[in-house]
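User: Predict the structure for this protein chain, please.
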Amino acid sequence: MYLGFDTSNYTTSVALFDGEKIYQQKQLLNVKSGERGLRQSDAVFQHIVNMPSLLERLDFQNPDIKAVGVSATPRNIEGSYMPCFLVGVNNAVSVSRFTGAPLYRTSHQIGHILAALYSAERLDLVNERFIAFHVSGGTTEALLVEPDIDEIVKAKVISQSADLKAGQAIDRAGVMMGFSFPCGKFIDNLSKQSDKDFNIKPAMIGRDCSLSGVENKARTMFEKGESAQDISKFVLSYISAAIDKMTELLLNEYGDLPLVYSGGVMSNTLIKSNIMNKYKAYFADPVYSCDNACGPAIYAYLKYNNE
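Assistant: Here is the predicted structure, written as structure tokens:
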């Protein structure tokens, strides 16, 4: 068994991978009504409280832990750091020291990519070059991913949002309309009830998109009394158009590479449908698209078996 930990800003998660099947437990962190996020100190405290019960709920009797993987940083770049990941690291170090199993550290972003590949049954792509989108509350990026001896895969940002992130735009619109944070599921469900079509030309700066106008337009629609359904569909339609344009520009520049989409925003129904109707793309199932510890567990498996 390969054990994975991930303690992101909004989800505590642990997972076991036996080389074929994933066993996972996760819990969303609590955000007070009307607020649009958590302070890092609050996230750290909730992770500490959540972790013992999640490990207990994995319900494996004396599993043979061969290796431990953990999301230690948001991204695999110098200076990437968030205190909340220390909770996962501390638990991973403890298990590693107690069992003697080797510990492998990776990033939250690489974990998302590996979980998406596993869900799409394309883990073989770790041996190829491909484009991966990581779209969430904290990140809206397209990455050129290539095999790497030390890190399994190495990811380089080749396109991103120049300002507001896609998940932020969704959550800010949702909180404005009175929904609880995080708002993705509410916005997704409401958008399906709208029959309004939007002709959107996304704001682009080279290969990068700009999403700051989404929040402003959503607020204008809200103040004019437009329905929550139409506002939700506009927000998602704009984000979908931006990701579509980023994809188009990158394929023109880098050639017909495989496309992989991960991150909580990419579990959205409208965005996923629009992209899949236009491109041959791989998406993770929602359970593997949102924050999870599956990626670190898979990373531990790949590292252990590559050495």
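The CA atoms of residues 135 and 255 lie 21 Å apart.
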